[in-house]
Amino acid sequence: MDSAFARAANDLDEAAFQALYGRWDPLDPGQVAELLAGSPVRWWVAGGRAARIGAAARPHEDTDIAVSRSDLDELRTALSGWHLWEANDGALRPVLAGQPLTAGCEQLWLRRDAGHPWRLDIQLDPSDQEWVFKRDTSIRLPWPRAQQTVGGVRYLRPEIALLYKARLDRPKDRADLAAAALDADARAWLAASLERLGHHEWAHHARGSQGAG
Questions:
Q1: DSSP states of 166-190 as a string?
Q2: Rounded distance, CA 150 to CA 53, Å?
Q3: DSSP 128
Q4: How far is CA 6 from CA 3, 16, 18, 22, 92, in A?
Q5: pTM here?
Q6: 7: three-class secondary structure by DSSP
């Protein structure tokens, strides 16, 4: 797995990452839906899979999942048969029953146990009653405007997924922007939000995006 956490913390290649942390075999969105079926946890697919909804597909090496931080207790209950680890500040730490998270932790990794691969990378999102962009909390939307359900799975809408990608600005992020299926309102919202955040080049490309929509 191309782990931003591992690479940023240790500058590891894939082989060195697996030797140190263990291998990844990520769940796909449908499997995540099965795992959390019946749980009250608010979760959604973000990242490249969300950015590409309605557009030409591309290969994805993982599934980016976000969960409302306010649902953390319910998440831990739903995943009580799994091992949760904090991925925080360049280190991994097991989250044991009854143990609080370390202050500032925003990312959890999930696996059955040490003999099994990592299956899920979960981002803890501050959004609760509505979707809120954590880098600028004045950028917010009601949930029906921020998400859509496709095949029984909740996805962040493409324009919002792209807003997160602008800071990373990797080749695959730019490819997702170019391919995104955005209607005129979504494109205008994205461009205005990017301008607000100082991503002027991305805003320019968002206005000229040729994705279907």
A1: HHH--HHHHHHHHH----HHHHHHH
A2: 8
A3: S
A4: 5, 10, 10, 11, 10
A5: 0.87
A6: helix
Q: What is the pLDDT of residues 65-121, one digit of tens each?
A: 999 999 999 999 999 999 999 998 888 999 998 899 998 999 999 999 999 999 999
Provide the residue type at 15 as one letter. Answer: A
**Residue-range domains of the chain with CATH:** 23-156 (3.30.460)
Q: Could you tell me where the beta strands, DSSP code E, fall in the chain?
A: 43-45, 64-68, 83-88, 91-94, 107-111, 118-125, 131-132, 140-141, 147-150, 153-156
- The torsion of the CA quartet 15, 86, 73, 66, rounded to 10 degrees, works out to -50
pLDDT of residue 208: 81
